[in-house]
Design goal:
By secondary structure, the chain is an alpha/beta fold. The protein has a single domain, classed as Nucleic acid-binding proteins (OB fold (Dihydrolipoamide Acetyltransferase, E2P), Beta Barrel), CATH 2.40.50. Helices cover 29% and strands 34% of the residues. Helix 2 crosses helix 3. The radius of gyration is 20 Å and the shape is elongated.
């Protein structure tokens, strides 16, 4: 019985140690992150629109460098900046949510401006979404 209790205590300590390590793991520095892929916003959107499951396999959770024309920019109540890039669709686009952990040199984007952003692809809801974006 004491042996079983000792094994259980050891497993609990290993689990707690692992959880603590994962919780305190530092975030990836997006300025220095290497891009897995580089393409334009229209090609990225078209890939998800035509074959979402195939695009998920190819782009999901990857650092993607996307180039496009700014359709609109918005800032929410907490100061988070989102940039929507043109894709040729009237209703949908590629949304790039700027990284809150990075100091950005540029935070004001005008419609029609050509930009290249790098971020982590989280897939497609109605728009293709990239999070933790930085200007390249």
């Amino acid at each position: 019985m004491k042996k079983l209790l000792g094994i259980g205590l050891l497993l609990a300590l290993v689990g707690l140690g692992t959880g603590y390590f994962i919780y305190n793991k530092p975030h990836q520095n997006m300025d220095k992150a290497k891009s897995d892929l580089a393409l334009d916003a229209k090609a990225l959107f078209t890939a998800f629109e035509t074959d979402e499951s195939g695009a998920n396999e190819k782009y999901l959770d990857k650092v993607i460098e996307v180039t496009g024309t700014v359709k609109e920019m918005s800032t929410d109540d907490t100061g988070n900046i989102s940039i929507t890039l043109e894709t040729g669709s009237d209703m949908f686009g590629v949304i790039c949510q700027m990284d809150n952990l990075t100091e950005h040199e540029k935070t004001d984007f005008q419609p029609g401006e050509k930009v290249t952003l790098k971020g982590i692809c989280t897939g497609m809801l109605m728009d293709v979404v990239l999070v933790r974006c930085v200007v390249v």
